[in-house]
Amino acid sequence: MKGPTSDEAPGNVRLIGGEMLLWSDLSTIGGVTEWRGAALELIRRTIPGRGRVLLVGPHPRALVDDVVARAPSAAVLLRSYPDACALGARHPELEVFCGRLEVLDADEPYDLVLAMDGLLRTHSAEAPAAAWNESLGALAALVAPGGTLVLGVRNDLGVDRFIEARPADRECADDQWAPHGFDPSYPSGPEALDLGLESAGLSLRRCYAAYPDRRAPRSLLSREALAFDLPEALTFPLSARDGDRMLVADPLRLTRLVFRHRLGEELAPLWLAVATKAPLPADQPSPAHLPEAVELPLGLIEEGPALYELTPGGMRRLPGGEERPIPAGRVVEEILVEACAREDVRTVRELLAELAEWIEAGGDVSAATDSLVYDGERFAAVNPPVGLAVMPGPKVVLCRILWRFAVRLLAAGHHHPWPWPLEADQLTLTLCGMAGRPCEPGDLDRARKLDAELGQPAELTEHAPTYRDLLAARDRLADQLTAALARISRLETKLSYRERELVRAKAKLRRTQRKATAYRRTLGYRLSRRLARPRKVARRVFRMLSG
Which terminus of the chain has a lower count of CB atoms within 10 Å, N or C? Predict the structure, then answer.
């Protein structure tokens, strides 16, 4: 089937009013939230075996294709006419509505409504934007009794808002013609979100906090999971550091504080709420295809290509993996960064020596300081080990681990007690020496090849430190410069005093020399010298005769 021209649209596209004919939501700089494997797994569990599914607003192509392939009947609502035509041409069996949410008049409600991009992109420039609670009411009216709504809500006070330097309300996107933040009905927190869903006639089943950012969430943690003290092995990777972002603060440090103070839900970049509408009373007939309630996961976490489900007893890899407990202890990288900030070289030396012994005793060759936890007695890898065709030597494995740590340490702009290494390679050799296993440049080359083989590239050193790190470094250097200038001033004062003393000593010496010269020219001195000469000759002759 050929793509539609500017004058015609596919037969499955319906214009309902308020459509934007020359606008595309998928081409803006702000972009659509890139929901990945964790969100896809959650949606797959909520798709009914028999029923109708509606996607409201723009969604990633992979998510739309997966829903269309799995749902018995699917429809999409978009405000962009070019996006609607492209989607209708890609899926001829899909019913595509183009226009505003408020004017959609569905013949029959839907058993599952997906609005994971939120409600901000359901408005149109052709009419004033409705309040958030009004849009939620219109969305809830599309949910069938007993049906499910999956709604994404961006948090205006999420942790990513405190990290990025660009203003959150102006992300250089053309779709932001209406200022955000002036709608009093927009949820200000989890409790406000719960009240908004309740006022729309929906009951919350589970609310997830999406991390690490609102652009590409790769982890969904439920409210029940966040109520407990999550181990560092789980929360440490939930931070984002993209190279194209201007950062104010270190995302890893700030995210760790969020979870340490149990504010993971309140400061989540965005929330993903799964709510249901109450079924019809028993005396009224209900649809035969009413979806059955499914067990929603406590959490879903992506680690590279792997997807894990959080369970009450630990984690299990999907699909079909066995449940295993989450290792306890502190992440090794955080211990080392803290020790480097205090310039506690002894702690660094002892920890690296124990790490080297653990590797020589058969430790995981694919581990790294950001994927290892230490409970004070033993090390444990967060991720399962990776099999290699040729096992490298312990020295190469240790060199790779310390090289990755050196790269991440310098990329984040952290302080360390070795100011002379300006590159990660020099710092790696220093750390290997502190561990008691000196490495050669050849070992470092093999370590980099091993890191590339494992497919876990470290962050590039070209990543600029954050503004706060730069300010801290500037203040630290300013203090050091002030101390150095004060010392130079004291030395200059002492040097000036010594120079004055030297000048006085030289003047005194010259006066003494002049006096001595004048004394030698006197008559008494010359007579005494001449009279003393015969006595010296007689004394010398007497010594020769007596000797």
Answer: C
